[in-house]
Specification:
This protein is mostly helical. It has ten helices and no strands. It has helices spanning 6-9, 16-32, 35-42, 47-69, 87-98, 102-105, 110-121, 124-152, 171-185, 191-216.
């Protein structure tokens, strides 16, 4: 049976956040089982691979957060939440782990540059989709990754700021509130486009994860 189209998933009053979750379930699972993300969750990723991933995620978040901050009073204003922003935390982690010259010494991969460019060029609906994928993924999976990285790479809390949200005391409540904010976006944005772009956002993550794994573990 063919998968329902993005338009079908958001019709008949279905909450947008539910449509996003249903439409991305399969590609979300694939992202967790692919490349360096699979290695991180299994505890087999090396220090260099982890640094390479962070270095390539930083420009993605920086681009996304610049655009969210520029949203002003537009429909994306509810998604512009500084407590969720990760670019500054990524910069701090990279400085702690790789030194002040991390931006010059750790390469920006083609997949990372393509992901950043996509975030810079998508419509408002597409930007909302990328925010959904990244921030809810960070809130849901960050605590798991933080624990695994502490155990396998010996990283301290000071070096794992990417996964800690000091401005958010109640993470489950924040997740529910962010989903509700997405639902309120439905009348203002092209929801079918948002659902389709959320799937593409996971594909961007998969491509980056595979590229990091290949670059960190080159063949003979």
């Amino acid at each position: 049976m063919p998968e329902p189209s993005p338009a079908a998933l958001v019709k008949n009053g279905r909450p947008l956040s539910l449509a996003l979750r249903e439409a991305t379930r399969d590609v979300h699972k694939r992202a967790e089982r692919t490349g360096v993300i699979r290695e991180l969750l299994a505890g087999t990723a090396g220090h260099g691979a982890y640094l390479l991933l962070l270095r390539n995620l930083e420009p993605v978040y920086a681009a996304m957060e610049r655009r969210l901050e520029a949203a002003g009073d537009g429909p994306l204003r509810e998604l512009a939440r500084p407590g969720l922003y990760r670019a500054a935390a990524l910069e701090r982690d990279l400085r702690h782990l790789a030194g002040a010259r991390w931006r010059h010494e750790i390469p920006l991969l083609e997949a990372g540059a393509a992901y950043q460019q996509r975030v810079e060029e998508v419509s408002a609906a597409g930007l909302a989709a990328h925010a959904y994928v990244r921030y809810l993924g960070d809130l849901n999976g960050g605590r798991i990754l933080s624990r695994v990285l502490g155990e396998t790479l010996g990283l301290t809390t000071r070096e794992l700021g990417f996964y800690h949200f000091p401005a958010i005391p109640d993470v489950p409540r924040c997740i529910a509130d962010y989903r509700a904010a997405l639902d309120r976006l439905a009348p203002a944005l092209d929801t079918a486009e948002m659902v389709a772009e959320a799937r593409y956002a996971f594909e961007c993550n998969i491509a980056l994860s595979q590229s990091v794994e290949e670059a960190a573990n080159p063949g003979p």
